[in-house]
Write a structure and sequence with these properties.
The structure is a homodimer.
Chain A (H helix, E strand, L loop, with lengths): L3 H15 L6 H8 L3 H13 L3 E4 L5 E4 L8 H8 L17 H25 L4 H16 L1
Antiparallel strand pairs in A: 1-2
Helix pairs in contact in A: 1-3, 1-4, 1-6, 2-3, 4-5
Chain A binds a DNA duplex through α3.
Chain lengths: 143, 143
Amino acid sequence: MNSRFAVAVHILTLLAEAGGEPLTSERIAGSVNTNPSLVRRLLSALARAGLTTARHGAGGGALLAKAPGAVTLGDVYRAVDGGELFALHRERPNPACPVGRTIQGALEARIAAAERALEAELDRTTLAEMARDCQGAAAGAAR
Amino acid sequence: MNSRFAVAVHILTLLAEAGGEPLTSERIAGSVNTNPSLVRRLLSALARAGLTTARHGAGGGALLAKAPGAVTLGDVYRAVDGGELFALHRERPNPACPVGRTIQGALEARIAAAERALEAELDRTTLAEMARDCQGAAAGAAR
DNA sequence: GGATCTGTTACCATATTAGATACAGACAAC
DNA sequence: GTTGTCTGTATCTAATATGGTAACAGATCC
């Protein structure tokens, strides 16, 4: 459906490989193949979540706010997509029906558990590992 | 985001409680609080996945194709939403950049693992349990 | 044969997504 | 302190997804 998670991971992997060098939204957009404004929108969400910081002005750009080994894909998911996994009914179910009256409560607990499981799996990968994978694959392709 | 999963679980829970009695799309729509055509669309996906069958004509309607204890929320997810968790980049990343060239491959494995974790958690709940929860809550509310 | 119900299609309104442009504000360089 | 660079945000647009609605051919029951 939406590609925010993929693009956000892409951005952060670039920042991890930059090793403290600030990257401009234009430079990042060149790798992602999109436009700088979209990159800045995502960086805005990542900064709100405490994952990145920015330096204004000439020579500025985006920076990781933490060590690459301390940021997980789960952090990225929560920053850009969190809590949007499943929606409940758009219209409230019929309260005159036993199932309609209770289904949403029964579902909420299961949906929350599923989201926890998803995030726990995403938490098993750090940006450092993503950067390493991309380095290795790039080296392999260059041989 | 989308409510297909919630509505599909609602439909199947109704069928589980009906205990072999066929329910019409109009009857189901009354509980979900939507219109019969949408219900039939979802039932169509559920039937393709082998979760329901239908009886045409007067006195007909939808039926569970399996025992309520043999259908999990993971089955429902796969039937109506499967494989749509995360999208990759809409435009292909820049192949001239080491990260752009390799990020999608590195992401695909992690996304697949996350989806497996999500489905495994959903597989822990069956329709029988959903029906029991709704019965219990309904009884509690009636006291 | 007539009534009922499914399965599918088509159409519409709305919401979401992402591409694009614009501009005020922050900061660096000089 | 003036100029240039870059961020952060708002706005607009096009494409797509979602769900509400109507319509109708086909299957089945009575």
